[in-house]
Amino acid sequence: MTSGAGQLLNPLLGSRALGEIFSDRGRLQGMLDFEAALARAEAAVGVVPAAAAPVIAAQCDAARLDVAALGEAAALSGNLAIPLVKQLTALVARQDSDAARFVHWGATSQDVMDSGLVLQLKAALPRLEADFARLIDTLAALAARHRRTPAVGRTWLQHALPVTFGLKAAGWLDPLLRHRERLAELKPRLLVLQFGGAAGTLASLGDRGIAVTEALARELQLAAPALPWHAARDRVAEFAAWLGLLAGTLGKIARDISLLMQTDVAEAFEPAGEGRGGSSTMPHKRNPVACAAILATATRAPGLVATMLAAMGQEHERGLGNWHAEWTALPELAIATAGALEQTADMMAGLELDPVRMQRNLQATDGLIMAEAVMMALGGKLGRLVAHDRIEAACKLAAAEHRHLREVLAADPVIAAELDAASLDRLFDPLNYLGSAEAMTDRVLALYQAKSQERR
Amino acid sequence: MTSGAGQLLNPLLGSRALGEIFSDRGRLQGMLDFEAALARAEAAVGVVPAAAAPVIAAQCDAARLDVAALGEAAALSGNLAIPLVKQLTALVARQDSDAARFVHWGATSQDVMDSGLVLQLKAALPRLEADFARLIDTLAALAARHRRTPAVGRTWLQHALPVTFGLKAAGWLDPLLRHRERLAELKPRLLVLQFGGAAGTLASLGDRGIAVTEALARELQLAAPALPWHAARDRVAEFAAWLGLLAGTLGKIARDISLLMQTDVAEAFEPAGEGRGGSSTMPHKRNPVACAAILATATRAPGLVATMLAAMGQEHERGLGNWHAEWTALPELAIATAGALEQTADMMAGLELDPVRMQRNLQATDGLIMAEAVMMALGGKLGRLVAHDRIEAACKLAAAEHRHLREVLAADPVIAAELDAASLDRLFDPLNYLGSAEAMTDRVLALYQAKSQERR
Amino acid sequence: MTSGAGQLLNPLLGSRALGEIFSDRGRLQGMLDFEAALARAEAAVGVVPAAAAPVIAAQCDAARLDVAALGEAAALSGNLAIPLVKQLTALVARQDSDAARFVHWGATSQDVMDSGLVLQLKAALPRLEADFARLIDTLAALAARHRRTPAVGRTWLQHALPVTFGLKAAGWLDPLLRHRERLAELKPRLLVLQFGGAAGTLASLGDRGIAVTEALARELQLAAPALPWHAARDRVAEFAAWLGLLAGTLGKIARDISLLMQTDVAEAFEPAGEGRGGSSTMPHKRNPVACAAILATATRAPGLVATMLAAMGQEHERGLGNWHAEWTALPELAIATAGALEQTADMMAGLELDPVRMQRNLQATDGLIMAEAVMMALGGKLGRLVAHDRIEAACKLAAAEHRHLREVLAADPVIAAELDAASLDRLFDPLNYLGSAEAMTDRVLALYQAKSQERR
Amino acid sequence: MTSGAGQLLNPLLGSRALGEIFSDRGRLQGMLDFEAALARAEAAVGVVPAAAAPVIAAQCDAARLDVAALGEAAALSGNLAIPLVKQLTALVARQDSDAARFVHWGATSQDVMDSGLVLQLKAALPRLEADFARLIDTLAALAARHRRTPAVGRTWLQHALPVTFGLKAAGWLDPLLRHRERLAELKPRLLVLQFGGAAGTLASLGDRGIAVTEALARELQLAAPALPWHAARDRVAEFAAWLGLLAGTLGKIARDISLLMQTDVAEAFEPAGEGRGGSSTMPHKRNPVACAAILATATRAPGLVATMLAAMGQEHERGLGNWHAEWTALPELAIATAGALEQTADMMAGLELDPVRMQRNLQATDGLIMAEAVMMALGGKLGRLVAHDRIEAACKLAAAEHRHLREVLAADPVIAAELDAASLDRLFDPLNYLGSAEAMTDRVLALYQAKSQERR
Questions:
Q1: Which of B178, C71, C310, D203 would you label with D87, given CA atoms 20 to 30 Å apart?
Q2: Would you say D252 and D174 are in contact if contact means Cβ atoms under 8 Å apart?
Q3: Which residues of D are catalytic?
């Protein structure tokens, strides 16, 4: 069998668990699980002989297939289902030629392939949800633990105002709570049987199409759709979009951690470990390896989501080529996003913080970071714009002369008239200018608690 | 003021209503509505003098702004809020210099701009929902009316089996019902106030940040978030993804109609109309103008969604450039998708069908389209694969010799032994091989009814 | 080793040859080829002992590596080069501990990985160029053979005017000639050594960095860059864009063939073949399998190109995550596009045409397709707009009454006054209204000839 | 007329000059310039009366059009050309009804629209090229001026090794030289007439199609294509890809500058200016406004390029919807990228550097940044891996005990045996470990010089 772009990078850039699920073998087994369940369901409904079902099901094991031959044959038939059904039929025929007549009865290639995919997704979700829960719990703990740890707030990559590290963690947690809600909402739309036969009417099952559909869905523990979704791809595209949204949030977290881990900032660090993040040539380096992997996924995800959306225009009762485009895009996106999730959960669980350096960085601008605090105090007295302009001038002076802002302000008679030394001391303590940071952190934690209880 | 890529194409490629809402003026008014509400909320909470609020609110009218100057100033300040607040403060100051001190009190540029955007989205949703409802009702009526109208089912762009036109309509309707469900789910996550002050702590409001947040949310009839979402962009990215999913489904409908409207197929047509779809040079042409507009949106949407997802990695407490990327991407996507929705609703409301041509096309393959019907009948007797191979040979012979398949089959003694003339007659009537098409259509219509009742 | 999204689909959706080149093993061998050449170049320049080079080079064989261990280690180190260098050093040390000291001397991980990638691309290009030449020659032959074969010209998916099939083929050929030109232009920018050491200064080589660079480039038969391109990714992004443009053109060809192969059109067909394009359930189906594969690539390519462009913002002297994003995106795009190219070349080489059906389709509109011919003839006499409106009315009448347009025109006294029966006969022969179709075809063929001679 | 997503943001996020060129009026005037030239060319060739040309040309002024009516009519006709030709014909008819008969003679809507677009691109290129030249010259001067200015080299956002600021500038310059080369190569493929009539055969011009094509191309100073490119969109898609590549490089520059401008790094700054980069609430802020605008474009470009690539699959002789998708995507991409280019040129021209801070940052890691220098010196003596491990341990010790690496090394007897104090002094001076940085800078500058001379 020819080889693709390789699997070597999966431990770094993807999830091993989902890599197994979406491997060639996983794909084939998903399809075979469908064929086995189909035989059972049709036997139960009386569409095929009861005796055929166990014989067929017994052969539905990917290990029995000639995988290389399947790949070659797919290039002629245009999909994997046709040669798989042929191989399966031959296997069954060796046991029981009567049973072999009923393999794949009433189904079409897309039924097998789409339902097989849904079964793979169904197997993948618990893995993904476990890492999800782990990350959410970790962030909640981090937010709680650091609800009063002062840190530099940065906007436009510039020091802005003091915040707390707890608020930062709460800010990462909050969208993840929404992602979990979204996943709960979309799951019933995603974990749905595909079954329509050649053109979506189940014509070959006569008037028993719906009965087989219901039985088959029960067999596979999937929902039965109102009608087949051969050419209505919103179910899988929605899941891709969800993965893209999740990858975006994970990328935001990794972006933040990697910026905090800059040698020049040094406030937070990926967990250290033997052989982790070293350089082939620079002995002193400690590279943000997890961030790199997560950001790689965040860079790739938008293009893969775009592919899934672009593939939605599937023609008539079955698309041409656009359906094929999904076959690689969705598994890749799922493997990569699950990998990024796992890396983020690991990274945050072992995150190292340096609150001393945070404090030092808060002082690095000689008081400029407290400028708004002073301005607001003055604003109530002099008006917001006047205060703004006066403080802006003081900031410029302080920066130009490398003096502390507090000192420049104390030297300004207009300001000194309004704010005495004690007031300035108070205004220049970051802990006195955290506004609603703690209240906000608590609000997110309350949401987290509520959601967690709901789930029990 | 310089001009962008132009507005001329909006009536064709976008929605006029959303074009108004997301116009420059709409954008500014959204921001001013926030400033007015902020003043009222802060007066209510006692953060600013009660007298200031009505004076400020009275100036919050986009018509009073010097728009060109705003654009120029934004190039220096990096956003529109800074010069807007300056102009607004000057306007208020002309009325009451005391009140002017309290303009924009405690807020940051992103509070104004994001909340303004959310207000625009809130105004846009009812327009979009109205067309949505219209399209859904139209498709339900179409599905009901044509639940037994036989039509050619096509897979891979090839004739496959008979279906019904009702089933086709149900297949377009079904994902739209899910899109409506998705919209209902995401709305509470989207229509949410943005309010955090300079670094998301509302520090300048001391301990009254949450109180002002709640009052402001009430003023604007938006939800109050647990904490600001300055750098957590999943709310808007999710809406973008939803628009992308909707555009994908609309594109699928337009793809189908345009294929059915091909001169060579001629089964369905966009509504005709004076001056509609003519050519500048070919007097006989009737172009699928609505399909073109809808497909244009479906082509553009994946890239715009990708932009919104790529923009999610916003740094620290406020992003750099990625937030800016949203400013054009989301409105463009909303205008385009709403336009496509409107065009689809209009197109389907006036859709012209030619059931006679559908019948003719069903006959066009000299019986080949009924091959599966015969195969299934034979399959029960000879086994699926044997029947498949025998019928496939007959199909090739019929095609090669330009004979009707029925005739070839009748001449095959093995087949003739199993199927007599009456059986063949029955097997070659499309209406006898529709399987569960009607039942499926009814299932979707039942879903539609249930959802419609829920909404009342 | 864990498994990715699988390799099973490569024969269908990708190129086997490029699949081999970009396989895990191909990736590792490219890196090892770099290490071997580095040792030789440094020995030649005198940076490492002459004796070390052959010892190192002898171990540079991917078959000697523990591949699974590499994947695991890469998850810790963040790239494959670090563990690969470790394994290689250990292998060399077993032979000669002195030589082992000089493995990877002066290089950084990215030097190995990027140069290895470039070597893979260098190996891939001749395969791609061979299929390219084959496709171009095939299309040129098709254009020449059918320069006067009349066919339906379709715009907006509607019959427009007669064209020739030769012109259609020339229209597919023309952009491919430009793609070949583009490839020739970009190759010197792409096939370029990466070599810069830890931060791109080759500091560890002292003043011999440039000398080693030049020697190494000679060893690998790559160009030496002015400076390393660790964080300037336009070279690989340009190639990705080229692949995207090529995929776009191939997608256009496949779109056209698949539309022509519709049961309802039936003018052109993918080559038939045993087991090719059959359906698992419908014995009469002949599916456009190659078109599906090509269209799948055309659907995936824009997202993959977008990923490569989005990855360009690589930070400082080496990017974080964005470089990682390239590792899968570029090989996948190359494998998929090369596969689509191969499929297109095969498809066009065996394309089956039905000129009789083309003629029949030209007649299918009862003369409407010749409406412009008549209008132009009239236009010179009555004015373009008047003629347009009159003929438009006649077209509508003909369509409404199912009469031939010639008959309706002949019955219109104003038109009959200008055009007698012989004139109408002439005007209704498609061969008389081909305009410059043949001249245009010849122009493209002349370009093809000129380009082909240049290349010899 | 309805309004789009607005023009207000153009001064910030786009180019004013290109905004004018691609405005509604610019679009219409491009189309009218085509119509005027067509009349002249056809008069010259004798296809239309010589007297008609000046009468037609005299009306080809966008100011005479009813623009709002055009937009409305386009929604019915599906493009702007049909109503524009109607309005133009009416205008000409008021002057001379004979001349009016020859308006748009032989052309189709797409001829007008595509050629009009090419004329807009032709007008835009010199603006873009001027900023391009300015940026390239600025970067060359910066590279030359700072060829020995030591600076921190950073990989993975970590301090790696010393580099020079000149090398950084050369690294920004180098890809821009290639982009200029690419633009020169693609221009002849881009600035090409579109002219094919209804289905690309110029049938309505009889045997004079090629003659008119050549004359028209001369009139418009565009190249004449071998055949029309109505449905072969590689010409415009290639330009889009080029814009995407350029945006990627500009994004990389802006990413770097914004990282260098972080409060925590403070090595380089966007030019300051009255009202530039201030915050609405924080008087001390100096925001990287230009970087934000450039990064916004770099974020948007991949999605817009993807749209242009996705739009390439245009059906038969004219596409359905995909052509429409280009109408907004290409102008938006051009306006945004040209704006980013202008912003980058301005930013780099006024870039402020702080070499003192660069020195300070080089010292910030207590010698760790020189670790590789020491390792290489030791490596020749102890072997690369041994040296690597020994130095790595020393680095960890130095970091853990907050000691300078030089001190830790001096205390290690194995190391002290190989490196005396003078050697260590030399090894810890960044200027002694710049490798080929200057030579590389010179190589890029030589390339710049050579390219600049070529262009004269």
A1: D203
A2: no
A3: 279, 318
- Closest Cα in chain D to B24: D6
Q: How far apart are CA C123 and CA C117, in angstroms?
A: 10
Q: How confident is the model at residue B103 (pLDDT cuts 50, 70, 90)?
A: very high
SS (H, E, C) D79-147: CCHHHHHHHHHHHHHHHCHHHHCCCCCCCCHHHHHHHHHHHHHHHHHHHHHHHHHHHHHHHHHHHHHCC
Give tens-digit pLDDT for A167-193: 999 999 999 999 999 999 999 999 999
pLDDT at A446: 98
Query: How far, in Å, CA of D441 to CA of D430, rounded?
Result: 17
From chain D, the residues in CB contact with B204 under 8 A are 281
Please state which architecture CATH assigns to domain D7-356. Up-down Bundle (1.20)
CATH topology of domain B368-427: Ribonucleotide Reductase Protein R1; domain 1 (1.10.40)
Q: Which parts of chain C register pLDDT below 50?
A: 1-4
Q: Is D158 helix (H, G, I), strand (E, B) or coil?
A: strand
Rounded to an integer, what distance in angstroms lies between the CA atom of residue D131 and that of residue C134? 42
Higher pLDDT pick, B414 / B32: B32
Q: Is the pTM of this model over 0.90?
A: yes
Which residues in chain B are closer than 8 Å to D333, comparing Cβ atoms?
none
Closest CA to A371 of B80, D263, D270: D263
Q: B263 CB near a chain C CB, below 8 Å?
A: yes
Whether the pLDDT of residue B283 is over 70: the answer is no
How close, in Å, is residue B15 to chain D by CA atoms?
A: 9
In the numeric block, the tokens 């341990």 are attached to D393
C142 CA: distance to closest CA in chain A (Å): 24
DSSP element (H, E) containing C16: helix C16-21
Residue A452 has what pLDDT?
Answer: 83
Q: Are D424 and D416 in contact (CB under 8 A)?
A: no
Tell me how long chain A is: 456
D279-325 tens-digit pLDDT: 656 666 789 999 999 999 999 999 999 999 999 999 999 999 999 99
Higher pLDDT, A162 or C372: A162
Task: For residue B318, give the DSSP letter.
Answer: B
Token couple for B168: 């086709």
Q: Does C450 touch chain A (CB under 8 A)?
A: no
DSSP letters spanning C233-292: THHHHHHHHHHHHHHHHHHHHHHHHHHHTSTTT-SEEPPP-TTSS--SS-TT----HHHH
What stretch of H or E contains B250?
helix B234-260
Active-site residues of B, by number, are 279, 318
* Residue in this structure with the two tokens 């792409």, named with its chain if needed: C190
Domain positions in chain C: 7-356, 368-427
Assign 3-class secondary structure to chain A: CCCCCCCCCHHHHCCHHHHHHCCHHHHHHHHHHHHHHHHHHHHHHCCCCCCHHHHHHHHCCHHHCCHHHHHHHHHHHCCCHHHHHHHHHHHHHHHCHHHHCCCCCCCCHHHHHHHHHHHHHHHHHHHHHHHHHHHHHHHHHHHHHCCCCEEEEEECCEEEEEEEHHHHHHHHHHHHHHHHHHHHHHHHHHCECCCCCCCCCCHHHHHHHHHHHHHHHHHHCCECCCCCCCCCCHHHHHHHHHHHHHHHHHHHHHHHHHHHCCCCCCCEECCCCCCCCCCCCCCCCCCCHHHHHHHHHHHHHHHHHHHHHHCCCCCCCECCCHHHHHHHHHHHHHHHHHHHHHHHHHHHHCCEECHHHHHHHHHCCCCHHHHHHHHHHHHHHHCHHHHHHHHHHHHHHHHHCCCCHHHHHHCCHHHHHHCCHHHHHHHCCHHHCCCCHHHHHHHHHHHHHHHHHHHC
Interface of A with D in 128-187 (CB under 8 A): 154-161
